[in-house]
Amino acid sequence: MDTEKIDRIIGKHDSEASSLIQVLLEIQSEYHWLPKEALERVSERLQVPLARIMHIATFYKAFSLVPKGRHEIHICMGTACHVRGAPRVLDAVQDLIGIKPGETDLDLKFSLETVNCLGCCALGPVVEIDGKTHGKMSPSDTAEVLKNYD
Amino acid sequence: MSGILLQIDGRQVEAEEGMTLLEAARKEGIHIPTLCHHDKLEPYGACRICIVEVEDSGRTKLVVSCVYPVEEGLIVRTRSEKIDRIRKMILELLLAHAPDAFGLQDLAREYGADRNRFEKEASFCIHCGLCVRYCAEVKKKHAVGFVDRGIRREICFVPEVAAKECWDCKECFPLCPTEALQAAFVLVEAFTGEKT
Questions:
Q1: What is the distance between the alpha carbons of residues A128 and A118, in angstroms, rounded to a whole number?
Q2: pLDDT for B36-85, tens place per residue?
Q3: What structural domains and CATH numbers belong to chain B?
């Protein structure tokens, strides 16, 4: 844990308590999770009680209190993607990287999540990796795409 | 300074600007049941048990009296068939979470609520927020807070703060209408141990 880095992120937002969520988001994207030490530092610097930070950090799905992998895979399970074979894509990904939705692999490479709709149903089944959308995926396409990440 | 005149259960009531319906009714000795209300705390409107019927320019609507400000000429009914039915439903839903809470059982008897109507999902917490708000507003310690959301929302002590502050305070314990808080506290005790 690098306190300076946290302080820099807090400093960018002028230590404003109202920027709490922005600060947490930046810490999340920096470390891929919210380490406890970071939250304590934020609490101290922004003068926000830890209970409130915990409330917010557990409320939004964007935050994680456990380490996440370097690459986040979101597989759309919405109706359109579902009927176009999203469950098969999910099975393929689970077999390939060996984790279930909500889990992270041991070398912190991938985290897997299912989402309910990514909003581009015409591209279904959709897989989003690190914010990049891959449309019309088949189980074999997914394997190809995942090779590009390490 | 002229007061605001309104009618509660057929009685003329004078209230001051900024008061809530609940406060106006209580001042007149009219009883409205509450679970999440506390005189020292900001109104919260969580339990909905203090729901009343308000008639304003010919229309009736249902409002929660602990957060509804008084208005000139309002006609308020604190008991009616409709309100009793709603309160009974709220109680039955709360009883699914805390079937043995004394406070709830007294109300359940009054409104004829059946504790077995809904499948029990005993979390022992009805999310009234009394402990959380008392700790934040009166004690300003923020030792206990809500975590997670929706059906998974629950109260949780922050161990670092709780270990320092709670042993000599515990003022939130008697506030809890269901004794859920004690359970949560015991949980933290298990984590932090006797460290004080």
A1: 8
A2: 999 999 999 999 999 999 988 788 999 999 999 999 889 999 999 999 99
A3: 4-79 (3.10.20.740), 130-192 (no CATH)
CB atoms within 10 A of CB B182: 14
| Contact call for residues B65 and B21 (beta carbons, < 8 A) | yes
Question: Which domains occur in chain A, in start order?
Answer: 3-59 (no CATH), 71-147 (3.40.30.10)
Of B135, B136, B147, which has the smallest distance from its Cβ to A54's Cβ?
Answer: B147
Contacts of A51 in chain B (CB under 8 A): 132, 135-136, 142-145, 156, 158, 161
B145–A55 CB contact, under 8 Å: yes
Stretch 17-76 of chain A: residues touching chain B, C-beta under 8 Å: 40, 49-52, 54-55, 58-59
Alpha-helix residue ranges (DSSP H) falling in chain A: 3-12, 20-31, 36-46, 50-59, 79-83, 86-97, 139-147
Q: Which residues of B touch A49 (CB under 8 A)?
A: 136, 142, 145, 158, 161
SS3 for B29? coil
pLDDT digits 0-9 by tens, B2-44 = 689 999 999 999 999 989 999 999 999 999 999 999 999 999 9
* ipTM score: 0.80
Across the strands, what pairs with A112?
A73
Cα separation, B46 vs B64, whole angstroms: 9
Q: What does the alpha-carbon distance between residue B71 and residue B35 come to, in Å, rounded to a whole number? A: 24
Q: Residues of A with CB below 8 A from B158's CB?
A: 49-51, 54
Min CA distance, B13 vs chain A (Å)?
A: 39
CA dihedral angle for residue A19, residue A22, residue A26, residue A31, rounded to 10 degrees: 90
